Amino acid sequence: MGVTGDKALRLSVERPASTASGYGMLLVLLLVLVAAPALAIWRGNAGDGLGAGLSGLIGGLVFLFLAAGFYLLQPNQGAAILLFGDYRGTDRVTGLRWTWPWMVKKKISVRIHNVTSDKLKVNDLRGNPVEIASNVVWRVTDTAQALFDVDDYREFVNIQIESAVRAIGSRYPYDDYEHDEKTLRGDAEHIADELRVELQERVIAAGVTIDECRLTHLAYAQEIAQSMLRRQQAQAVVAARQTLVEGAVGMVEMALDQLSAKNVVELDDERRAAMVSNLMVVLCGERDTQPIVNAGSLYQ
């Protein structure tokens, strides 16, 4: 399910914020810290008590004003700058930063997030209940959308992961023994790619990019697991028998052709059929055969 119509309109778009390096402002702060007391002492020594007090007061206010504008940004971290609720841009420059003290700084991580979903019970395409869990690697690429277009972007992503897994799980059968269609078990790469596309369409409104999706758990639900296991075993036995018979027929055919080509023995139709039967028993039997040695004539 994609975002269409009015939902496709982005309410917010990230843009660079107008901020300053904190290191230059730190130098100014240190100058104020030194200059204000020095000026107050000088005015006090000159006998101007009022001027000394004003110098100290103004210096203290300037110091507090400058100190209130500092903030730190770590690598892969951003800060959305707001002026009385109005979005003014996002600062992604790491280190010590400074902006006007009345600006509100809302920090947000743009690091890679790794989420493993809970095991979900989903009915596959044929209605069989299966358990599915997935691992999703995602990150915030538009901080404005993540902060202002959804209420809680982390919770939003988690809910959309569950919805996408349920949607994908219901589109495919768990298994197809005839190999005529894609399945959850047999086409893991295709399922992972489709899950990533499905989830990306769901979370794009939150400014989130999905980097990778993988199914971490896939199994029949407990209530049908034993029945499906017996079915798989039966089909595996049939497939093995079919392969065994095909191989045995080829070996018997090769043996008879070589016996005839090298004139080792001449066999009429009846004894030819008996040899075929014996060879098939030897080749297809589940137990080791016990040969009977005929010490007399070949036809006795």
Automatic annotation (TrEMBL):
InterPro entries reported for this sequence: Band_7, Band_7/SPFH_dom_sf
Keyword Mitochondrion: no
Membrane-traversing stretches: 20-42, 54-73
Residue span, Band domain: 68-236
Keyword Membrane: yes
Keyword tags: Membrane, Transmembrane, Transmembrane helix
Name of the protein in question: SPFH domain-containing protein
Native source species: Sphingomonas gilva
